[in-house]
Each structure stands twice: as C-alpha cells, then as structure tokens.
Amino acid sequence: MEIKFLDLQKINMLHQEEIENNLLKTFRSGWYLQGGETKNFEKNLAEYIGAKHTIGVANGLDALRLIIRAYKELGIFQDGDEIIVPANTYIASVLAITDNNLTPVFVEPDVNNQNIDISKIENNISEKTKAIMTVHLYGKIAYNEQLSDILNKYDLKLIEDNAQAIGAVYNGIKTGNLGDASGFSFYPGKNLGALGDGGAVSTNNDELASVIRAIANYGSNEKYINTYKGLNSRLDEIQASILDVKLKYIDQENNKRRQIAERYSKEIINSKIILPETKEGNLEHVWHLYVIRSSERDRLQKYLAEKGIQTLIHYPIPPHLQKCYEEYSEFKFPITEQLSAEVLSLPISPVLDEESVEYIINALNSFN
Ligand SMILES: *Cc1c(COP(=O)(O)O)cnc(C)c1O
Q: Which Gene Ontology molecular-function terms are recorded (predicted)?
C-alpha cells in the first residue's frame, strides 16, 4: 500500500467537470484580472463566512501583510508597535508582522492543543501592544471567551490567521469572522485550495476593506489615482472561478476530514503516541492537519514510510529559531521547541478512503 500525505490530483478531480468548465469559460472570456469571477467569488466567500467584505489577494501571506499595512495607513498601528503571535505557527504569521516593521511578541502554545495558550497572553501585553494575531493552527479554533475579554480590556485588534481553518465554527460564528480582520490562504494544499496561489482578507470594517483593496491594487481605488504606496496583490480570474466551485463543497469536504479525525482519535491506541486534543463543545474544528506526538517521532516517521505511509512535520523549526530571525535566537520557548521535535502529521483529506484509514491505524497500533 502507498498512501500519499495529500493526493491533490484526486482532490481536484472530485470536481473535474465543473472546474474544467470554469477554466474554459474564463479562458475564452478574454478577461483575466479584476473581473466578474473574482467579484462573484468574493461575494460568495463573504456570504459563507458571514463577513461584510472579502478581498481576493495573491496569497495568504499577503492577506496578513495587507491587514497590518492598512492599519498603519489608518494611523492605528505605528512602526515598533507589538503584535502578540503564537510561537508555534507557520512563519508567514510572523513575517506579516516584521515585514511591516512591527514587533512580534511570541506566546507559547498549550502543549495539548498546540494553539496559543490564551492564559499566557495577558502577561505579554505592554504599552506598545496593538493587536493579537490568533492562528487556528491545524484547523483547530484558537479563540475563547477569555481571549475576547482580553481584547476588550486592553482595546486590542484581533487579526485571525485563518489559512488552515476555513469552515471552522466557534459558537455559531465562522473563524474569519471572530475578530477585526482575517487572512485566508488558497495554497493548493489548504482545505480550500486553488490551482496555484491565492488568498483573501475578510472584515466587517468598511474603511479597512477599502484601504486593503486599494493597497493590494497599487494603492489605488480609482484608476491612475494612487493614494498609498501600494503593492500588486490580486487574486486572478482563473483561480477565483475554480475556488468558487470548490467553495460549494467545503463543508462536505471538511466533514469527511472530521470523520477521519474521529476514527483516528477513537482507534489509535499506542502508549508511544499522544493524540491531539479533540475537545469540541461549541467548537467545530476542520482538521486541516491531524497531528500526533511521539517522543520517538523520527523513528515512527521512518517506520510509517517503510509501510508506504507518507507523513509530514508541521513544523520542524519554529520561527524564532529560523536563520532569518537571528535576533530571536536567544529566546526560549520550551513547549514550542518540544512540539517541533515531537509532532507528526498523518494523512487526512476528503479523498482518503476507509481502507487507507484502517491501514494507517493498524500500522500506528503495531508500532513498538
Ligand atoms: C499557508 C499558511 C499561510 C500563508 O499562506 P500562503 O498562501 O502560502 O502565503 C499563513 N499562515 C498559515 C498558518 C498557513 O498555514
């Protein structure tokens, strides 16, 4: 048996006819940027999230960069201000902050759910703190009442990095609509994946939306009038037309992921393996990744590879230990560092069949 970590071809072939029709339609239309497909997808995405505005952009990193940049243009953030961010995240969350000359203040995760430990945020707030960037890592919701209380008490903005969690629901509200603005990624491997790069911002704030839209389009809301020193970060018509097909099926596909996660959580039983926390209650996670832990992670990964099961590590080196962030290399985040040595992501996707799930569970249960 050969089980890929993620079979993108199979995932996209689920909607072959509709995707091919839209590709051809867009190709033949002669209109490839800033047209009806993007508008239509933005409208449908906004409706899906429940947010007033969504703005299609070039990728997930740009979505986050643009939010922070727009707050700077509005005079709400200044150079040197601080944004609280989880130490255990993909580097894009941090790059979006440093690229704007703001300072990331890292907070350790909760070892059991790998998301930011909300109880440790308040100690890290200073005079310069302007926002909290919460990351719904692995498709698991990183938000609760305590976080909401902190935001109110200190009058902070909440920026969501929703790159891994489209479709997740907290208490009836979709992630991406819990805070002031949110960044989405449509990188091919994400739960809602394009056939290339893509991203979006969502917000309920009219002014912020308008500034982001302008900055993403050379700083211009009106042709040849440049209000900001902008960038070029646009979602193209072809990607938008494909994403619009896939958006219709996102709940269905996330449900498949939930079913697989449930089986893993029930049936993987091995004292050498720690399973992810599955506490649901008012939380509907979307299981972008199903991440187990083991103190013998590298041996486990090799063992699974020998059985034809491909796994990945998200992430082997935390942002503060990356070469590009030498200035943070003295920081100590023992929980984050422990996770980077122990985590292992199992195959999970809407096209992973029962037989493969069974095979993976059996392999894990016989690891010794
Ligand atoms: C994928 C990802 C991003 C960046 O998305 P791109 O589209 O690749 O730029 C940001 N944050 C997290 C948590 C991600 O997983």
A: transaminase activity
Measured in angstroms, how far is the CA atom of residue 359 from the centroid of ligand 1?
Answer: 30
Q: How far, in whole angstroms, is CA 137 from its chain's centroid?
A: 6
Q: How confident is the model at residue 279 (pLDDT cuts 50, 70, 90)?
A: confident
Element (H, E) at 326: none
Task: Locate 49 and state its tokens.
Answer: 């999230």
The per-residue pLDDT for 122 is 98
Q: Does residue 349 have its Cβ closer than 6 Å to ligand 1? A: no
pLDDT of residue 280: 72
346: closest CA among 310, 295, 297, 300? 310
CB-ligand 1 contact for 90 (6 Å cutoff): yes
Q: Which residues pair with 100 in a beta bridge?
A: none
pLDDT at site 281: 81
SS3 of 149-212: the string is HHHHHHCCEEEEECCCCCCCEECCEECCCCCCEEEEECCCCCCCCCCCCCEEEEECCHHHHHHH
Tens-place pLDDT, residues 229-243: 999 999 999 999 999
pLDDT above 80 for 192: yes
pLDDT, mean of residues 62-79? 98
Tell me the two tokens of residue 78: 């200044």
Rounded CA separation 215/58 (Å):
12
Cα separation of 279 and 150, whole Å?
22
Closest atom, ligand 1, to C-alpha of 288: 15
Which numbered atom of ligand 1 lies nearest the CA of 198?
Answer: 7
Pocket test for ligand 1, best of 138, 161, 312, 314 (most atoms within 8 A of CB): 161
Within the chain, where are the H helices? 8-13, 16-29, 36-49, 60-73, 91-98, 145-154, 206-215, 237-247, 250-267, 297-306, 334-342, 354-365
